[in-house]
Specification:
The chain folds into two domains: about 120 residues, no CATH class; about 110 residues, Purple Acid Phosphatase, chain A, domain 2 (4-Layer Sandwich). The chain has a four-stranded parallel beta sheet, covered by helices on one side. Helix content is about 60%, strand content about 5%. The chain is mainly α and about 260 residues long. It contains eight helices and four strands; from the N terminus they run αααααβαβαβαβ. The mean pLDDT is about 90. It starts with a helix and ends in a 17-residue tail after the last strand.
């Protein structure tokens, strides 16, 4: 309810800026209003996903939740960065009685919307693709021969939330399993909006590497609820590090994390 109300208020502000700032007629205002309304409709579903800590199906994420996120994020950015310019130009057009300023403002706004819209559509189509695996071979001076060849996987900035599908998280987990790591590290920004999203990741990463699974909290985890995220991660077998070092000697490796 709070999410829908907040987005409704922001949408009305965005429409007000567009109507007054660009001096739109009633026909164009209605058309824009209908488009904005379409992207308000999924918000109760999004709020339910956040509240329950559930992920949508692959196709719902592709066609509903991610486009909804992109739309509202982009127009919120417009409200912060572009709207002040539009309002300023409208005031200038009134002061100087110039229709050319309005035409310039309309052209500028249209160009920005088309450019950023194109970038967003490209991003929406690229997001479902499997994450790229970057492989690095590290040479560590003084490394014990028995530790040579250890495979370490680092996962970072997963940002699991209502814009991801369960299938995508399971695909990441499958990729991790196929790489057969000796050690798994998750370096922050694990989930957004609800700590319960942790269960999706933890239920997928059920395998136990011989050197263990370690994680740290990121800034988005702090916003979401660091203590609860840490508790759930520990419950699923992750060792949470907080300004500390851990020796892996008891697990058979002369390494310190």
């Amino acid at each position: 309810m709070h999410l829908t109300l907040a987005m409704l208020i922001l949408t009305l502000l965005e429409l007000l800026v567009l109507k007054w700032g660009l001096k739109l007629n009633r026909k164009w205002t209605k058309r824009l209003g209908l488009i904005f309304l379409v992207f308000l409709l999924p918000l109760p579903y999004v709020a339910w996903l956040i509240q329950k800590g559930k992920l949508p199906s692959y196709w719902l994420a592709f066609f509903i939740t991610r486009p909804t996120l992109a739309w509202h994020f982009n127009w919120f950015t417009f409200l912060l960065l572009i709207a002040p310019i539009v309002v300023f130009l409208r005031i200038c057009s009134i002061v100087f009685h110039s229709s050319l300023i309005i035409k310039f403002s309309r052209g500028m706004t249209m160009a920005i919307v088309l450019f950023w819209g194109t970038v967003s559509v490209y991003g929406l189509f690229m997001t479902p693709k499997a994450p790229m695996v970057e492989k690095y071979e590290l040479s560590i001076k003084g490394l014990s021969p028995k530790d040579d060849g250890l495979r370490i996987i680092q996962l970072s900035d997963l940002h699991i939330a209502w814009w991801n599908s369960k299938a995508e998280i399971e695909r990441i987990s499958k990729m991790v399993k196929e790489l057969n790591p000796d050690l798994v590290l998750i370096t922050g920004d694990i989930v957004d909006h609800n700590p319960e999203f942790i269960s999706v990741l933890s239920n997928s990463l059920v395998s136990e590497p011989k050197l263990g699974k370690f994680a740290i909290i990121g800034n988005h985890d702090v916003y979401t609820g660091a203590e609860e995220i840490a508790r759930q991660m520990q419950a699923f077998g992750f060792k949470m590090l907080n300004g500390e070092c851990v020796s892996l000697k008891d697990k058979g490796a002369d390494l310190i994390i």
